[in-house]
Secretory protein (Adineta steineri), 316 residues
Amino acid sequence: MKDWKSQTEDFNQTTHESSGKETSSGEHTQYPQKLSILDEHKKTAQTLKEMLEEILKLLRNWIVKNDKDSETEKTKNNETSAAVQTTEPPKQTDNNETLQAEETTVESSNNQSDGVKFYTLNGFTLTIINEAQDFGQEIQERIFDTFNKVYPKMRERFNKEATKNVTLIIVRKFNETAHTSNKTIKIHSAYFKETPLDTDTITHELMHVLQSSYPNFEQTWLIEGIADYARWKYGCDTHQEKLTNFESKHNYTDSYKVTARFLVWLETKVNDKVVDRLNEGLQKNQYQNGTLWKEITQKSVDDLWNEYTKNPDLPK
């Protein structure tokens, strides 16, 4: 097929050859048709040209983006510090169990431009995204120390299939002290500025990470009670005297420390597996309006609470 330029030349040649000659009316009527065909070819050629230019533009943008991504990854890798080998001495746990000394690898990388730090130890990683400029490095390292001490033990007990990678976002403006969604924890920076040593808020929120596998969260009072129980059991700065003292106005549905103290009492006075079984039941959606209590203890939660109110003291 000839292009529009060749067809134009043919048309001009035909016109030149016919000049000065007598032509019929039929020959004259063919000229507008040829012009129309030429216009269509011109439009087609212009459309193809615009399409080609657009494809070339997209290709150039893709190449530029790919180069930028490669450069970013290269920069990130260069900023990652070398692993530091450390040997930990035997540590004493809350349950008086001695952990054997083991060789561990601590990896940390800093990206000061976007306030992101990665801490890795024994396969567990805590990513800290710091959106508060006044939230210092010392507090972040203390938070990672808490994470390292409590999360592996809690995961082993309550949810062995849970993630080993947790993200902590430190925010300046937040209407809560802390909030957890799946494996992401948000913390209000002002809280740690007021109580810089209380990193066990992280312990509570880490329990919520482990609870993210629950199919529903209807029993909020029990979920929060188990989280505060975990804070008491595994927290670095928590002891029995920090549990809320019993008061006659309390109820087991009051949640948090009130419920946590009730769980501690049940564990020491009724069934030492009660918290584990409650956690397992919530994971398997077996709570069923409280029947799970009878399966575990042969008593209703109301009967257990009545016994608790009569003698709420905890073992020393």
Remarks:
- The chain has two domains: 88-213, 218-316.
- The longest strand covers residues 103-111.
- Confidence is low (pLDDT under 50) at residues 14-25, 74-108.
